[in-house]
Q: What sequence folds into this?
């Protein structure tokens, strides 16, 4: 039975349970709702929940565990001596999986007939061609053992699927019936719904937490693989970045970190004053009409994809800076530079800083302004001495958030900053950043298990640590100010 | 009755500090203040009473042009401070507000230290020529605000850490520090408990020695306790204005009487 059909049936049983449960509750009190503990629909919901939740949970667990079980049954069929050099059991098993799913598709589309399959074990070239017809490309020749394993894979899968359908449906009915029979007027159906909603919310937030943990764990795992091949001290303290295809690379993070921080610094130098001042203007000085026009326009900047900013850096800002600043000043002849990327990234961050600061400034109570104006302060005195200090923790938080965006930004630096890993102070020179190198190391031609590729994970983890540090710092500053002023 | 007559004489001796003539205030299309004439005497506490929404705060805010900070507010008529029209284009509202200080309904200390709260006005207006003089101003203002003893050991701590009543006295001291001639107070005790209220009322009575004080209050007992003159507002009109004793014992207008006896709320 197809999964979607099973899901539909379980849902349908849930709805039937809802109607029945509701009716049972109403009948129990002869239609007088006042004698029920909860509103009738809550009794329906109880049955609904019992009908679908255990069944779906079982289904999910089953679907997660099934492949492992089949794999362990099937992998015994592969003769270890048949595995070619440079290959492994897991590679062969992935072939098995692909062929079995290809066979499923081929049968579904009518390209192959189920009955013919067993006869094809001696005609594997035709099989290969047929699979190609349905879009499943198999790399090497199909070996007979692999084909047999694939067939076994399919048959165990089909059996298990049938068993699962039966068990899930039974569980759904049993749980629903159990709940249904317990419905009495005193039954606290409202509380059941409450508990179910709470569990749903907890599940949603644990999905978020678990994915974060998962991502970090996989980063850490690959990074530790990297450090088995490359010394940590070299990575952290070497001042050269020079990856080679044939090994013997220098993979020091310092030039990349320097480029990242330098570009981000230039970006913040642009974004913080402009963003903050425009936020102050909009929040304190602008009339309502200016604000309703200007705020959305500034926020449009935030909606421009960063690749477009990258193009702008590459085609307009870069050559402009080179022709009018770098060359006349004798500072270089490169159109990609820290300055180019930093300026454009700064522009990208302006709406970010300004809309966060605007919200924060607006959150400063009007009574602060009244107090200051009431003492005869001018508008700018009020802004400087009362509003900014009161809003400072929030503004610092906004700036640090902007900084972590700048550090993690990729497209603008790919197109604007260049690719040369350098430790230099000249802002008109091309430099590169951690994010750029992550992209280029992963898209290169080198083998996955080489330090040249795995360094991308170490770089990613370093980036993560830096941004995490920034966020922790932001929180710490905000909390210190809170203590001081509350 | 002897003591009442005594107050009357005391009031007659005071000169007029602020004279408002034909003042109208509009918020957009809302006519919040309708042709109000009132004279506020020097070294006197004048109370504005009336049901909420009748325009007491609005009129109070005309007296130091705080309504300028509200986009939709429009003020017409004349308000003379010491014979000079404060709505004259030549008058700088910022300077005016240093002369006519204001204390608000909710205590609103700045998120700064107690010292910096008091020093805020003097610094802006350059009232002190050095650190020593500023220290002196701060101490004097805090003493006048009747809060010096409570805070003298923690001037560097945030003003927001004080209790509500202390915060309000801090705000009064902050207003005093700019050496205003008039002090406007908009329901200064409405966020305070009875003990803090009593302290602030006592303070207001002392302030009368040096300033003319205008206080908005919704408590008639408070008006009777602290003021010498009372103005009763109703729906934007100034219904009755006179000696506090007269207003409370012998009101002329029936609306005043209804309000005072609790029939209009
Ligand atoms: N900022 C404002 N914008 C528009 N209308 C206002 C504003 N402030 C006050 N009003 C209106 O003006 C009238 C008087 O308000 P207010 O002076 O605050 O009364 P009170 O202080 O006596 O309670 C009310 O009807 C109120 O709705
Ligand atoms: Mg008011």
A:
């Amino acid at each position: 039975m197809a999964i979607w059909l099973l899901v539909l049936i379980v849902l349908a049983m849930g709805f039937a349970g809802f109607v029945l449960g509701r009716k049972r509750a109403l009948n129990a009190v002869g239609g007088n709702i006042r004698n029920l503990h909860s509103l009738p629909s809550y009794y329906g919901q109880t049955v609904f929940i019992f009908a679908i939740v255990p069944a779906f949970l079982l289904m999910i667990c089953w679907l997660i565990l099934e492949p492992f079980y089949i794999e362990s049954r099937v992998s015994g069929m592969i003769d270890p001596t048949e595995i070619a050099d440079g290959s492994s059991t897991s590679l062969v098993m992935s072939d098995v999986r692909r062929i079995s799913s290809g066979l499923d598709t081929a049968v579904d589309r009518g390209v192959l007939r189920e009955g013919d399959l067993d006869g094809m074990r001696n005609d594997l070239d035709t099989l290969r061609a047929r699979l190609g017809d349905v879009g499943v490309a198999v790399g090497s020749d199909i070996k007979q053992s692999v084909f047999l394993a694939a067939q076994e894979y399919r048959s165990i899968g089909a059996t298990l699927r049938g068993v699962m359908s039966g068990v899930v449906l039974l569980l759904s009915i049993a749980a629903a019936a159990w709940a249904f029979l317990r419905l009495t007027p005193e039954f606290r159906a409202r509380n059941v719904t409450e508990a179910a909603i709470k569990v749903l919310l907890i599940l949603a937030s644990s999905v978020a937490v678990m994915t974060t943990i998962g991502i970090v764990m996989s980063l850490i795992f690959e990074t530790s693989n990297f450090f088995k091949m490359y010394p940590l001290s070299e990575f952290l303290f070497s001042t050269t970045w020079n990856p080679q295809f044939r090994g013997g690379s220098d993979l020091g993070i310092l030039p990349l970190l320097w480029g990242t921080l330098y570009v981000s610094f230039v970006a913040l130098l642009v974004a913080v004053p402009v963003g903050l001042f425009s936020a102050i203007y909009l929040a304190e000085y602008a009339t309502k009409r200016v604000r309703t026009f200007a705020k959305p326009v500034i926020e449009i900047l935030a909606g421009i994809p960063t690749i477009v900013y990258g193009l702008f850096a590459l085609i307009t800002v870069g050559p402009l800076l080179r022709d009018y600043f770098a060359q006349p000043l004798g500072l270089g002849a490169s159109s990609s530079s820290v300055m180019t990327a930093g300026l454009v990234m700064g522009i990208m961050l302006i709406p970010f800083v300004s809309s966060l600061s605007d919200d924060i400034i607006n959150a400063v109570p009007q009574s602060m302004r009244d107090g200051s104006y009431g003492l005869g302060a001018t508008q700018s005195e009020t802004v400087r001495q009362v509003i900014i200090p009161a809003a400072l923790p929030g503004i610092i938080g906004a700036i640090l958030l902007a900084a972590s965006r700048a550090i993690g930004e990729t497209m603008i630096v790919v197109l604007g900053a260049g690719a040369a890993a350098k430790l230099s102070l000249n802002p008109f020179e091309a430099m590169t950043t951690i994010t750029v190198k992550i992209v280029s190391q992963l898209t290169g031609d080198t083998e996955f298990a080489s330090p040249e590729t795995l360094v991308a994970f170490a770089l990613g983890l370093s980036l993560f640590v830096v941004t995490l540090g920034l966020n922790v710092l932001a929180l710490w500053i905000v909390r210190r100010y809170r203590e001081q002023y509350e | 009755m002897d003591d009442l007559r005594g107050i009357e004489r005391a009031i007659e001796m005071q000169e007029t500090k602020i004279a408002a003539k034909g003042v109208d205030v509009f918020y957009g299309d809302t006519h919040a203040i309708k042709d109000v004439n009132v004279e506020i005497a020097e070294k006197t506490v004048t109370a504005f009473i009336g049901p909420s929404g009748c325009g007491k705060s609005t009129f109070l805010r005309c007296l130091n042009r705080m309504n300028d900070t509200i986009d939709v507010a429009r003020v017409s008529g004349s308000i003379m401070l010491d014979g000079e029209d404060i709505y004259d284009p030549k008058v700088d509202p910022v300077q005016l507000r240093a002369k006519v200080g204001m204390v608000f309904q909710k205590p609103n200390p700045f998120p700064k230290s107690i010292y910096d709260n008091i020093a805020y006005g003097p610094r802006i207006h350059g009232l002190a020529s050095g650190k020593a003089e500023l220290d002196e101003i701060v101490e004097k203002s805090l003493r006048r605000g009747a809060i010096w003893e409570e805070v003298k050991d923690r001037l560097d701590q945030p003003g927001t850490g004080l209790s509500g009543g202390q915060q309000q006295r801090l705000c009064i001291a902050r207003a005093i520090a700019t050496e205003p001639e008039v002090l406007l107070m908009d329901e200064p005790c409405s966020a305070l408990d009875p003990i803090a209220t009593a302290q602030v009322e006592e303070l207001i009575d002392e302030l009368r020695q040096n300033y003319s004080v205008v206080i908005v209050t919704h408590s008639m007992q408070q008006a009777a306790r602290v003021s010498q003159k009372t103005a009763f507002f109703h729906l934007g009109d100034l219904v009755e204005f006179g000696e506090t004793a007269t207003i409370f014992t012998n009101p002329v207008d029936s609306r005043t009487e209804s309000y005072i006896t609790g029939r209009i709320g």
